[in-house]
Amino acid sequence: MPTVIREPEVSISLISADTLVGNKPHKILVVGQKTAAGSAVSGALVTNIQNDKSVINALFGANSQIAGMIRNARLYNTKTRIDAIALDDNGSGVAAVGTFTITGTATVAGSLDFIVGSKEDFNFSIPVAVGDTAAAIAIAAAAAINANASVPATASTPSPGVLTITADNKGTVGNTIGLKVEGSATGISVAVAAMSGGATDPVLTTLFDPIADERYQTIVYPWSANINLVKNFLDARFNVANMVLDGVAMIAIDDTFGNLLSITGALNSQSVCIMGDKKISEADHKGGSVMEIPYAKSAQISGIRALRLTEDAPIGRFVISRSASLDRFGGIALASLPYFNTPVPNLPLPDFADGWTMDEQEFLKASGVSVYGSNISGTEVILGEFVTTYKTDPASNDDITFKYLNYVDTSSAVREYFFNNYKATFAQCRLTEGALIPGRAMANPASIEAASSRFYKALADEALVQSGEAAAQFFKQNLVISINLANGSASIAMVTPIVTQFRQLLATIQIAFSAEG
Question: How far apart are CA 168 and CA 68, in angstroms?
């Protein structure tokens, strides 16, 4: 090889552009019980669960609570990362049991629909011919139910005409599986007894140990009998030092008005969102007015929430505004967009006259219960105003700061954005009270103020904080920066006026009898 002269010596290095840092991707954690058929290790964290039902079923058992939760979260959301922690049933657990008691002999042909938990997924239509007996109908229904490997319960006929439903997972969650019969066949009657008797859940005290400092913005949680466990876990992560770990537990409960007020009245947390559906107790219907298993409802709604907050995810089907083209793709800007009127397409419509009255909805909202139900035209299930159980500050003063889930999502996004960009901007930097030296990594109060204003402007462009010159000046005037050179610290106090939801419009119309002055 000949001698090559390379003079003058030139070296050029590429470095990262001076761009702002976005928030971390949204992640969902699903927790629940598996069955023995699942290969997942009880209590271990399973990460990056894809939208593959065969994989989900193999990991947790097709008929398990947790497999059903993950399948429902993936109904609308194939973008957001989902991790899971599955637990084996408690060895001392008791399975919930309910019954369809069928009597008579058919004198006119018809059909009966036996619904086990989910009207959408587990609705078993049994044709009834003239002369069919109660015993024959029960046997046919049991065979149909047991032929579906994903039903979280097993059917049996211990005596003629009695169709017994036994939850496949032991514990209290089985009590929440609704039962309903629809249709008719002259000569045949069916009475439904609610699922009950489920007792002794898995030991939950070490449930969250495997996730350490991993952040999950959404936790789908099925054990409504033990809400304080997830509440205490998330509350402790709400404002930790040098990290952003906050998240929200999504818990669906079917219960009476009084019981829901009692449950949420004892809670006061920005980290817990209770979704309450009215529990129906009629001869042919035992379960929520929206006939879906509560943990499946919370998983579906959690999937939609996470999709909204996932960068560039297509969310047009969940945004009804006709002029909001930028809101048809997910990201942190969606934190401030109201949840109400969001459709949940896979949830079945409640029967007419079932559900909460307007007065009940207001009382429930005040207590920290979010509701969902039919739209005005009766064509689809939509979300109402979504709130957390937060009601008062630490001094017991009424406080709306974290009352609405959008307020929590917005303030959390704002905090994380400042956190990430302060980290990136001042990752390796000197601190001074004097002037900055060009070409040197240095910071002083003026440069910290300039960076903070830059971050605020970026958040305003995302419709999370108030925009415009007046808002920028307000932010700057309320920004207080102090430094301590001895310990190399900067302290920043700021006020960030967030964007809120347009929840009410009041107008007055005056009647006139002439258009002339």
Answer: 12
> Going along 67-205, which residue ranges are E strands?
81-87, 97-104, 110-116, 123-128, 153-159, 162-167, 179-184, 188-196
Asked whether the beta carbons of 102 and 162 are under 8 A apart, the reply is yes
Every domain range in the chain assigned CATH 2.60.40:
97-196
Q: What angle do CA 339, 340, 345 make, to 5 degrees?
A: 90
Q: Please list the pLDDT of the chain residue by residue as tens digits (517 residues).
A: 678 777 777 777 777 677 888 899 999 999 999 999 999 999 999 999 999 999 999 999 999 999 999 999 999 999 999 999 999 999 999 999 999 999 999 999 999 999 999 999 999 999 999 999 999 999 999 999 999 999 999 999 999 999 999 999 999 999 999 999 999 999 999 999 999 999 999 999 999 999 989 999 999 999 999 999 999 999 999 999 999 999 999 999 999 999 999 999 999 999 999 999 999 999 999 999 999 999 999 999 999 999 999 999 999 999 988 788 899 999 999 999 999 999 999 999 999 889 999 999 999 999 999 999 999 999 999 999 999 999 999 999 999 999 999 999 999 999 999 999 999 999 999 999 999 999 999 999 999 999 999 999 999 999 999 999 999 999 999 999 999 999 999 999 999 999 999 989 999 999 999 887 6
CATH class (in words) of the domain with range 97-196: mainly beta
**What letter would DSSP give residue 201?**
P
* Single pTM value for the model: 0.94
195 closest CA partner among 222, 164, 159: 164
